[in-house]
Specification:
mainly alpha; Rossmann fold; Glutamyl-tRNA Synthetase, domain 2; 4 domains; 24 helices; 45% helix
């Protein structure tokens, strides 16, 4: 059979040769140890945390080896493409500070010598390689129509198992030149399938950079390498692009392990040396209903969307440090020993990447974020809060900006100069609720039922002579004297039995004032809150609880 004539029938307008293409993509001149890797997302919606996890691993592998990281947009699946999704990818990567050596800008300019870095602009390259495989008898056109539904699929599967359950050869693999020509004259659309050389009995071994040597059944399926629309699926496109672009390590999810035998056969057919695969484990969650481990899902888990962290106001560093902790548990120890160093100083290699699926834990992320936010100044906290509000709460932003001095003082409470700053805030979205007592007087009070009357008794006396003291020490002495004078108790029964033991219970007195002003038993420095609110507002809130 003259395969070259069939190839010419299929691709009469493809004049670009594989030899010409290879000359345009010379081998990279790399130093020993340098890694060339890529992030290759598909613009199919929001940026999933699993995709970003791969991007972050790739970023660090390149950074830690002084290597090269490039961004390739894999947009060949028209059905899954979502408008503006490409812009979302770029926004997430930019806001998280992941910089690429090579990429295509949103304006279409290629930065780097191995572009285009968008797969839909590389179709002529894929077709040239497809034509070559057909001309060598390694691939063939398939004119079969797509199955119409579930019944068709089940029928095909039943017939396949009756004949041979070890291989899956396509019906069109042995069409003659005349048969192919007739299909073309009829205007029939076609896909291109790889003609597998295997029988279904073979097994192969391959190396995964994280999991080590793996063994699997060799591919024995004539799978599609170019779809009927002339565009290749992932398998064919990535084998060509990663070879031409000089990828040395491809980071991808472990769900691709089962496809690796097919990909390796494709590399062999193309005459390429297989690239090194680094199959990272998938991020999981513990399902609240079942208690079982499951893959983190965009359907059920809002935190699966990387935009969630912007919307909630998590510091970028908090999210990145949490992901580093999931990539390599050694980061947590490193952070404890190096609390002031930037996360970028933490180095890891491929062998340090966890092989076990990490469990996403929002509580753990919040703890990391609390520690990070506790280290920044009040002025920086205010600035970050304002920046977040300008994007996600414009009414709040107007209030913060119009009263900057007030809110800088608020953010500085128990922070600037404190030996042990409070660790209550983990994102900027929570701050309005956390400081709700600054915006509005409390409507409810965290007050024990048996303390209600005693609180009103104490506050009635306190408000009579209240004037804003000049210092925290002066205020505390005023409260202490009044508490001692009244001799109130935390427990009515115990007080009646031994009144003297409860005289001067200043802690309880402070609690009553705190509850009246903030509605809560616990808050940052009460004296500072009173200064921010002002004398008149403090009196109003004291009287409100008295009359509650």
């Amino acid at each position: 059979m003259d395969y070259k004539e069939i190839a010419e029938l299929l691709y009469p307008n493809v004049k670009l040769s594989v030899e010409e293409i290879l000359k345009k993509y010379p081998k990279r001149n790399l130093k020993e140890g340098q890694i060339v890797t890529r992030f290759a997302p598909s613009p199919t919606g929001f940026m999933h945390i699993g995709n970003f996890f791969q991007a972050f691993i790739s970023y660090n592998l390149a950074k830690n080896t002084d290597g090269i990281l490039f961004l390739r947009i894999e947009d060949t699946d028209e059905k899954r493409k979502v408008r503006q999704a490409k812009a979302v990818i770029y926004e997430v990567l930019e806001r998280f500070g992941l910089k690429f050596n090579e990429y295509q800008t949103l304006d279409g300019e290629d930065i780097g010598d191995y572009g285009p870095y968008v797969q839909s602009q590389r179709v002529d390259i894929y077709q040239a390689f497809a034509k070559k495989l057909v001309s060598e008898g390694k691939a063939f056109p398939c004119f079969c129509k797509k199955t119409e539904g579930k019944e068709d699929v089940l029928k095909l599967r039943e017939n396949k198992f009756e004949e041979d359950d070890e291989k899956e050869y396509d019906a069109c693999r042995d069409l003659s030149y005349e048969e192919v020509k007739q299909h073309i004259l009829n205007g029939d659309s076609f896909a291109i399938r790889l003609k597998t050389k295997n029988t279904g009995k073979e097994r192969i071994k391959f190396n995964d950079l994280i999991k080590g040597e793996l063994e699997a059944k060799a591919n024995a399926k004539d799978f599609v390498i170019v779809k009927s629309d002339g565009v290749p699926p992932y398998a064919f496109a990535h084998a060509i692009d990663d070879t031409l672009m000089g990828t040395t390590v491809a980071v991808r999810g472990e769900e691709y392990i089962s496809s690796t035998p097919a990909h390796l056969e494709l590399f062999e057919a193309l005459g390429f040396t297989p690239i090194n695969y680094c199959h990272n484990p998938l991020i999981c969650k513990i399902d609240e209903k079942t208690g079982n481990r499951r893959k983190i899902s965009k359907r059920y888990d809002p935190e699966a969307n990387m935009m969630y962290y912007f919307e909630q106001g998590y510091p970028i560093e908090s999210v990145l440090e949490y992901l580093l902790n999931m990539i390599n548990s050694g980061f947590e120890i490193w952070r404890k020993n190096n609390p002031e160093l930037p996360w970028q100083d933490f180095k890891f290699g491929i062998n340090d990447i966890t092989a076990v699926a990490p469990i996403f834990d929002l509580v753990k992320l919040n703890d990391i974020s609390k520690n990070l936010i506790a280290r920044i100044s009040g002025e920086k906290l205010y600035s970050n809060w304002l920046t977040w509000a300008k994007e996600y709460d414009k009414v709040l932003a107007t209030e913060l900006e119009g009263n900057s001095e007030k809110y800088i003082k608020l953010c500085a409470m128990d922070r600037d100069g404190a030996t042990k700053p409070r660790k209550d805030i983990y994102n900027y979205a929570m701050m309005k609720e956390y400081f709700s007592y600054i915006f509005n007087a409390p409507k409810e009070y965290e007050l024990e039922e048996n303390d209600a009357e005693k609180a009103k008794e104490f506050l009635t006396e306190y408000v009579k002579s209240f004037a804003m003291p000049s210092s925290n020490e002066e205020w505390f002495e005023q409260v202490k004297k009044l508490a001692d004078k009244l001799g109130y108790a935390t427990d009515n029964k115990a007080y009646k039995q031994n009144p003297d033991a409860y005289k001067g219970n200043v802690a309880k007195a402070c609690e009553f004032i705190r509850v009246a002003i903030t509605g809560r038993k616990n808050s940052p420095t009460l004296y500072t809150i009173m200064l921010i609110l002002g004398e008149d507002e403090v009196k109003n809130r004291l009287n409100k609880l008295i009359n509650y």
